[in-house]
Design brief:
The chain has about 170 residues and is mainly alpha-helical. The chain has helices spanning about 5-25, 30-50, 50-75, 90-110, 125-135, 140-160. The protein starts with a helix and ends in a 12-residue tail after the last helix.
């Protein structure tokens, strides 16, 4: 096994582990931090696969902006942690069944798909060409996503103002 393959599999394992830890944390800020590690690992995988622009965008958009928004929302909502079991036993059986089905389908797809031995040709494009393609052909999608992020931010601010704190006309 080459060093490249070792780093690839090690990073993939770390991504799976940090994501699994993130979904089992009771404290939401800790879950966000572990998810941040998962996003950085994904950026490393993109870089190893020969997509440095995508890796940089992943760090800027997901590990930067989206995670700051998640952290902002988590800190403003102020959820209380309880001492009850995080995942009751009644939820483990369906999760295990669906997990086994997902694993079986994934293995079947990987092993049974014809033509998996064929290497895909590498496509090379500069960041300028990528930006021109995205903003010329998918400008409406980008505007819709930016509008959704704006609505989420306004919702987070309105949730953070407090539930019982009504503003009077003197304060406004």
């Amino acid at each position: 096994m080459s060093l490249y393959a070792f780093i690839f599999y090690l990073t993939g394992g770390l991504i799976v582990a940090s994501t699994a830890i993130a979904i089992t944390r009771r404290h939401m800020v800790h879950a966000v931090i572990y998810l941040l590690f998962s996003f950085f690992g994904t950026a490393v995988l993109f870089y190893l696969l020969g997509a440095p622009l995508l890796a940089a965008l992943w760090v800027i958009i997901y590990a930067g902006a989206i995670m700051v928004l998640f952290l902002f929302i988590v800190m403003m909502i102020r959820t209380d942690t309880t001492s009850e079991v995080m995942f009751p036993l009644s939820q483990w059986l369906p999760a295990a069944i669906f997990g086994a089905i997902y694993l079986a389908v994934g293995v079947a797809v990987v092993l049974m798909t014809p033509g998996t031995e064929v290497a895909l040709p590498m496509v090379v494009g500069s960041p300028r060409e990528f930006a021109l393609y995205v903003f010329q052909n998918h400008w409406l999608s980008i505007e819709i996503v930016s509008l959704l992020l704006l609505v989420a931010l306004v919702g987070a601010v309105s949730l953070g103002r407090g539930r019982g704190e009504e503003q009077t006309e003197d304060e406004a």
